[in-house]
Structure formats: C-alpha cells, structure tokens
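Technical annex B. To support the medicinal chemistry partners, we prepared a structural model of the target in complex with cytidine-5'-triphosphate, based solely on the information shown next.
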Amino acid sequence: MLNKLKRLPVPFKEVLKIASKEAASLGFKIYLVGGVARDLILGKTIFDLDIVVEGDAALLALKLSKHFGASFRKHHAFGTAVVTLNKHKIDFATSRNEHYPHWGALPKVNPTGLREDLFRRDFTINAMAIGLNKNDYGKLIDFYGGVSDLKKGVIKVLHEKSFLEDPTRLLRAVRFAQRFSFKLDKDTALLMKEALSLEALTFVHHHRLIDELVLILKEAKPAAYIKKLYKLTELSFIDKKMKLEDTDFTFFKRVERTLAFYKKSFKKDKKDKKVEGWLLYLSGIMIRYSLEEIVDFFRKFSLKKGDMIRVFAVKENIGRIKQLNKDIKPHIIYRLLNPLSLESILFFYAYYTQRKIRANIECYLKELIYVHLKVKGQDLKKMEIKPYEIYSQLLQQLLYAKIDKGFTTKAQELEEVKRIFKRLSSKNR
Ligand code: CTP
C-alpha cells in the first residue's frame, strides 16, 4: 500500500506525513480507514481523508489544523473533528465501538482499539485500514477479509445484526453494490430481506434515510440504483403511497443521458453554477405529487428551501413547456425558460422527447442564455428618456428585440430603443 500512498496528491501526502509525526509526539496511533482505504486499493481518486486515532482525535486534528492554518470543527458527541484544507475534508475520529440502545438509534460510543472500530463498520470492503505510524506506515490492515471481498466483488456485512442496528446500511448496500457492480454476499442478502421484513427502515429517523437517498441520487448514474431500491423498498420510507412505474425508470435513464449531453455540449453553466443533477431524479420521483405535497415533503425531511423551489418549479411549469413544441420566436423561448433553474430546464429536456421542444431548449442553452444588453439604464438617462418608470419595460422589450433580430452592436440597440420608446409613448398617450 505504500506505493499507493506515494501516488496521492502532494497536499494529501504532506497532511499524512505531518499527522503521523504529530500523532507520534502525542503517543497516539493513527490509520486511514473506510472508503479511503477501499478506494486506494481500487486505484480511485481520493477527495477526502478519513483518519481513525487510537487517542484523542480532536486534539490531533486541532494540532494539524494549526500546522496548516486550516479550519477546524469538533463534534463533541462522537469525539470526532474535521479539518478542512483547500476544500478537502479530513475527518478524525477516535477509534470506538458502538452500542445501539435500540435498533436504528444513534449509537452510544466508547473508545477502543482499531480492530473493534473496524468491526462496527458496515461492510467488509469498508472495514480496512492503512497504518500511518512509524512501524506500519502504508501497511494494509485487513482483519475481516475486505481485500478478498473486493476481489470477489462482494458486499458483505460483518455481523448479523448490522442491518438492524443501522438500517441505513440497507440503502448503502444498494449504493455500493451498484457503484462497483458487486453482488450481495448470500448471507448478507438474506439478512437484508429479514431486516426489510421486520420493517427495519421504520426504526431510523427519516432524516438519516433521506441523506442516504440523496447520496444515491448523487451517484454518477443513479437510474439503476433507484430501480433496485424501489424493488426492495418501494421507497416507502419516503412515502407509503409512493408509486413508480416503468416509464419513470425510463425517464431516469433519459436524465442520465441529458446530464451527460449537457456536460459534453454546453461547457459554461449559467451563472457558473454546478448543475445539481440529483434534483432532476428527485423531481422525477415526485412528479405525481401535488404542489402542497412537494412542500410537505421538503418540510418533513428538512431539505433546503432552494432545492424545493427548483422541484416546485418543475411541477408548476411542466404543462407550460409544451408551448415549445412548435416554431416560435426566440424571445418566447427565452421568456419561457429564463425564469427557470438549469435543473428545471434539463428536467424538461429529459422529460419531453419531442424534437421541437428539445431543439428549442438547446437553442436556449447554446445561445439565448448568454444574451445580454449592451445598453443600460444610464444610456436611457443620457437619451433623456422619461419617465423612469418605463425603463424596466423598455429594457425588457429591447432584450426581446435583440434576441429575435440578433443585434450585435450597441448602435443597433440604441436605434431599437428609439423605436420602442416611440411605440410606448404613443400607447400611453
Ligand atoms: N460507515 C458505516 N456505517 C454507516 C456509515 C458509514 O460503517 N452507516 C463507515 C464505513 O466504514 C465507511 C465510513 O464509515 O466506509 C465512511 O462513511 P462514508 O463517508 O459514508 O462512506 P464511504 O465508504 O467513504 O463512501 P463514499 O465513497 O460514498 O464517500
């Protein structure tokens, strides 16, 4: 594993080196654990680090944050701390076992050695560690057959109460199996069925389940995950009367293709914002909800208001977008699409298969989205246009004219201002 550590980006190598030194000076032992160890073995890119400390994790994290001038946050209940360095998160946790007061509850934790810490984890492939200490730097620690299961392509729990103690693992099993195209180990599959038949998902606070669902929707190609999850749970943990049909799963595949097409063909995002692709899937899952139900859903799961507004807008505009199914002036396309978020627009691109609708959306994303006026309010003032109250109306009409007529110069816009002003004045007379 030492070679794999050596291939990490320089800032990570530096963090590990200093963490190792600081830990030694405090008399602690430290290890890279969980998904990081797994992904290093698989040769995947690492974004964040997860470090387990046999000792006081928060103290080590604090020292490290001071060394790098990085931000530091402590989580008192779990004895964990996060250092954020150049947008990378480095999680520190004191090695611990977990005791569940009842199934699905948040665990009570006690400090313990690494072996027990790894045993409390979800799956064997996530229960490996890499030593970061003088005597074991870069050494793989694999008590529970993680490497063998990685090779076999198997998702396997470490003990038979795993899904009952932490039912979010039912969703995690689906996520990892789909992500790596792994199979569920035979006994694990049985334990999963058993947990589901005991309605284990009702033991957990719904916020924890929605967090896992969002993680699924954020995977690279989540359509197959959603299908699998629906088959297992009918998504009843979101809503008892949730109903998805074949057409919905076909739609999720189209969303995947839409997002890939968008990424490939339209480099610049509107307002340089990243597209939150997962919201398209969530909108699809909720497409039969009424507007009130959408609001209730976002409240129940304490999801962000900004995300709700985008899902809401999909539902609200789904009928109106059919107007794009004909030859229309570019400014009408603009008027229909410009108030919408990129997520909503891409949703409609995936939702409607009519060529005309798609071509009009493409025209908006390729060109219209970037149209801006050269003429500003100041120019209107200079032209002594009055009253000021008509400025916004005038500029809006100017923008539509520019879109339809394809003006490229400020002079063209100024000429158009005069025409619009004349029209507005005669109308108001
Ligand atoms: N873990 C667990 N049970 C959970 C959640 C997490 O045992 N319900 C453990 C696993 O060892 C996991 C680690 O905590 O590898 C880190 O959790 P998380 O960041 O959620 O998982 P990753 O494996 O890092 O997944 P990803 O690659 O999606 O970040």
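Notes passed to the chemistry partners:
The longest strand covers residues 88-94.
The chain is about 55% helix and 10% strand.
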